[in-house]
Design a protein that fits this description.
Layout (H helix, E strand, L loop, with lengths): L4 E5 L6 H12 L2 E4 H10 L3 H12 L5 H14 L4 E4 L5 H10 L4 E6 L2 H9 L1 E4 L5 E3 L18 E2 L6 H15 L1 H8 L3 E5 L4 H13 L1
Parallel strand pairs: 1-3, 1-4, 2-3, 4-8
Antiparallel strand pairs: 5-6, 5-7
Helix pairs in contact: 1-9, 2-3, 4-5, 6-7
The protein binds adenosine monophosphate (AMP).
Adenosine monophosphate binds next to α2 and α3.
Length: 210
C-alpha cells in the first residue's frame, strides 16, 4: 500500500491544487484545500469567511488558530486518507497537524518566484467545478467558459500582480521553513514544478507508490 496521508507543499502557483485534484481521483483520497474551503466561507459570508477575507485579499495568512479549527475535523473524518493542499503553511500549523494525524509523505513542488508570478497572472479558475487553467497554455485568450463543465471562468482576487509578490514573500518567510521541518522527519519528497503538469503528475504518482 502506498501513501494515503499526504501533504503538498510549495509556493502559490506551483501546481499543488492541480496535482491534488488528479491524485485524489486516482488514489480515492479526500482533497482538503484550505484555500478552497476559505473561499467557500467567504462566498457564503460566514463568520469565518468575514474574518478571513481581509487577510486573503492582502495575500497574508489567516491566523493559525482559525485554520487549525477549520481543518481538524475534516482531517479526522477522512478515514481513507487525504491530500492536504495549502496546509500546513506555518511551523505552528505543522506542529498542530502532528498532533492530529501521522503523515506518509510531504511532496514539495518547487517553483521560482518569476515563474510563480507568470503563472498566477495567467491563472483562471472555473467558478462551478474548480478546474484551473493558464492563459496561453491550456486556455486561449478570450475564453470565458470552462471546457469541462461550461461554468464561468474567473480570476482570483489574490491573483493580481501586487498581491502575488506579497504571497511569495509570505511563502518564503512562513512556509518555506517547513521544507527543513519535514526533511528532518524523513518525509520530504522534492518535485520540480517547472516540469509540465503531466510529468509532475507522473513523478508524484511514482513517489507516492514507492
Ligand atoms: P491558496 O488557495 O492555498 O493559495 O490560499 C489562498 C489564501 O487563503 C492564502 O493566501 C491565505 O490568505 C489563505 N490560506 C489558505 N490556506 C491557509 C493556511 N493554511 N494558513 C493561513 N492562511 C491560509
Amino acid at each position: 500500500m502506498g501513501a494515503t496521508r499526504i501533504v503538498f507543499l510549495g509556493p502559490p502557483g506551483a501546481g499543488k491544487g492541480t496535482q491534488a485534484k488528479r491524485v485524489v481521483v486516482d488514489l480515492g483520497l479526500e482533497h482538503l484545500s484550505t484555500g478552497d474551503i476559505l473561499r467557500e466561507e467567504v462566498a457564503r459570508s460566514t463568520g469565518l469567511g468575514k474574518k478571513a477575507k481581509g487577510f486573503m485579499d492582502r495575500g497574508e495568512l489567516v491566523p493559525d488558530d482559525l485554520i487549525i479549527d477549520m481543518i481538524r475535523g475534516r482531517i479526522e473524518r477522512a478515514k481513507k486518507g487525504f491530500v492536504l493542499d495549502g496546509f500546513p503553511r506555518t511551523v505552528a500549523q505543522a506542529e498542530a497537524l502532528d498532533r492530529i494525524s501521522t503523515l506518509d509523505a510531504v511532496v514539495n513542488i518547487d517553483l521560482a518566484r518569476a515563474e510563480v508570478v507568470r503563472r498566477l497572472t495567467a491563472r483562471r479558475v472555473c467558478r462551478a467545478c474548480g478546474t484551473i487553467y493558464n492563459l496561453g497554455f491550456n486556455l486561449a485568450a478570450g475564453t470565458t467558459r470552462c471546457e469541462a463543465c461550461g461554468g464561468e471562468l474567473y480570476q482570483r482576487d489574490d491573483d493580481q500582480p501586487s498581491v502575488i509578490e506579497n504571497r511569495y514573500d509570505v511563502y518564503e518567510r512562513s512556509t518555506a521553513p517547513l521544507i527543513a521541518f519535514y526533511r528532518a522527519r524523513g518525509l520530504l519528497k522534492p518535485v520540480d514544478g517547472k516540469l509540465g503538469s503531466d510529468r509532475v503528475f507522473a513523478e508524484v504518482m511514482r513517489i507516492l507508490a514507492a
